[in-house]
Design goal:
By secondary structure, this protein is an alpha+beta fold. The protein has ten helices and seven strands. It has a four-stranded antiparallel sheet. A three-stranded antiparallel sheet has the order 1-2-5, with no helix packed on it. A hairpin with a 6-residue loop joins strand 1 (176-180) and strand 2. Helix 3 (66-78) runs parallel beside helix 5 (97-113), helix 5 packs parallel to helix 8 (142-150) and helix 6 packs across helix 8. The longest helix has 25 residues, at 16-40. The radius of gyration is 20 Å and the shape is globular.
Length: 256
């Protein structure tokens, strides 16, 4: 699942400081994903809908942020324009650990992996290793890049893809949900087994985080159907909540 909303309402009851950090980083990931989706598929910026300007404003506002520059770096790397990638990477002003990790990993990649016959220095190896051992939910996807660059395997090197001890991540794993069909047109179904959770509801939001559907769920029914007949084509986020806690979220694509 890729996160598209600019709001993340997961709760971490054990430690408010950890809750605030987790929620803040999830908002960052949501913005990062939304920008990537909109840049990769420009048709979503010009659907003829009345709110197209909001998507355009969002993209424009992100272009000169660390997220925007990071997206440009990845785009230039994919097209093998390494000098341009280095230029945009130098524009990144780190505002958080995610930004710093991504900038460092990009620089090491451009200095070594993008150059033939170039080997990692012991110093760069140590830096990558320190990033590779961090929690991806809080330190960003550069953690995965560092692991790949070092050839690390979770089963062999003694770490999980994500740290399951994180309270919010552990709680999300306790429910099972399946959304189909995906892509959908006029409706989609959700099959769910939500264990011991109570006060359940489902929300559907658009890529800007606007709430389009709110519906109470009966945990004993195990299935519900969502009507999307009036939804324009695009990417939407489905959340299932227990009271105010988000226990499941997933992307649904509506294709007319």
């Amino acid at each position: 699942m890729k996160h598209v909303s600019t709001r993340q309402e997961s709760q971490c009851q054990e430690d408010p400081r950890e809750q605030n950090s987790f929620t803040d980083e999830m908002r960052y990931i949501n913005r990062q994903f939304a920008l990537s989706e909109l840049l990769d598929d420009s048709t979503m910026l010009n659907t003829g809908a009345a709110d197209d300007y909001l998507y355009l404003q969002f993209v424009d506002s992100m272009k000169t942020t660390p997220i925007g520059y990071s997206e440009m770096v990845q785009k230039k790397i994919r097209s093998k324009q390494f000098d341009s990638a280095a230029y945009f990477n130098n524009l990144i002003v780190s505002e958080r650990n995610m930004d710093e990790n991504r900038k460092i990993v990009n620089e090491i990649y451009l200095n070594h992996f993008a150059e033939p016959d170039s080997l990692l220095t012991p110093e760069d190896t140590a830096v990558l290793y320190a990033i590779a051992l961090q929690e991806p939910l809080l330190a960003g996807d550069a953690v995965y890049s560092a692991r790949v660059m070092l050839g690390m395997e979770p089963d062999e090197d003694g770490f999980d893809f994500r740290t399951e001890e994180h309270p919010a991540f552990t709680r999300v794993k306790m429910c099972e949900c399946f959304i189909y069909p995906n892509p959908a047109s006029d409706n989609f179904n959700i099959d769910y087994d939500l264990g011991d959770y109570n006060n359940l509801s489902i929300e559907v939001t658009d890529i800007l985080g606007r709430n389009l559907i709110h519906k109470e769920l009966d945990k004993d029914e195990y299935r519900t159907q969502i009507n999307t007949e009036n939804f324009p084509s695009g990417i939407y986020l489905v959340k299932i909540k227990a009271a105010s806690e988000t226990i499941f979220q997933s992307k649904i694509e509506i294709a007319k």
